[in-house]
Amino acid sequence: MASLFSFGRPFAGLAGRKGAGRAAWRFRADGDPRENRSEPVTAAPSKGSLSAVVEREIIPRLVAAHPRDSQIAPSVKAPAILRGEVESFTSLVLTAEADVLLDYIDALVARGIGAEAVLIDLLAPTARRLGEFWNEDYCDFIDVTMALWRLQEVVHELAARVPIAEAAPAGRRALFAPMPGDQHSFGAVVMDEIFTRDGWLTERLTESTTPELLARLASTPFDLVGLTVSCDCHMRARPALITALRNVACNPRLCVMVGGRVFVDEPERAAEVGADGTAADARQAVALASRLVAARARGALTAA
After folding, report:
1. Are residues 228 and 153 in the same domain?
2. Residue 134 and residue 183 in one domain
3. Rounded to whole angstroms, how far apart are CA atoms 278 and 271?
């Protein structure tokens, strides 16, 4: 069963499936080198750990497998994926094959939904919802495993739709990591991917430790460090950590952003822990980070 969670290689079964020959959905055989950032799961998860597997192993592969768009320019009037559509797609992925799932996505694209929205607003929430189904006893381990397999097939097909953009030769640098001790890396994965698509040079630490964070900031001139938080535990230690990050950073203009549910619910807590800002989602974070870095470069922003 463990092999079902090892998504490091293409699915050979796609070649003979209905729709596999569509020009718009050709499989990208060479893959994305960023797919190897997460280690493969080596054992079937227990019921209590499947949600963590989804966030720490499956979703990073879903995000990394999709090619980067050239620029992010969302319109406030752009069509959006509705919550009901996520629920419908989640139910569909439990029973339908990849070609049916792709037909569903084709309909969204025809409505004006972009590739980035499909990735962030449909596929990632679907993967998380599958983990919730397991915890809620809605379906068993085999059901969820096969659904995740189908979802991965869809992502491999989607990966061929847009050519991979050339990496920017120079640009602002950002480091993303979960807060040391935090067990969930999904937020850092999404932030890393979205900032990369916007032209930033990014690095990500999947399971960060305080010494590792300090060492990276001391050796590389990052303009921004983004820390994601999945719970409000250990809040008292965070101001000291952020102060230490600023003190060791080889870039004295380092900006610090924090994100996670605790800061979405109470954004004022970002300043309380010593960060320069927070945002409700990755798209808003890109815009805020650009403003913060520009202001710090002009000397118009001082450390929190």
Report:
1. no
2. no
3. 9
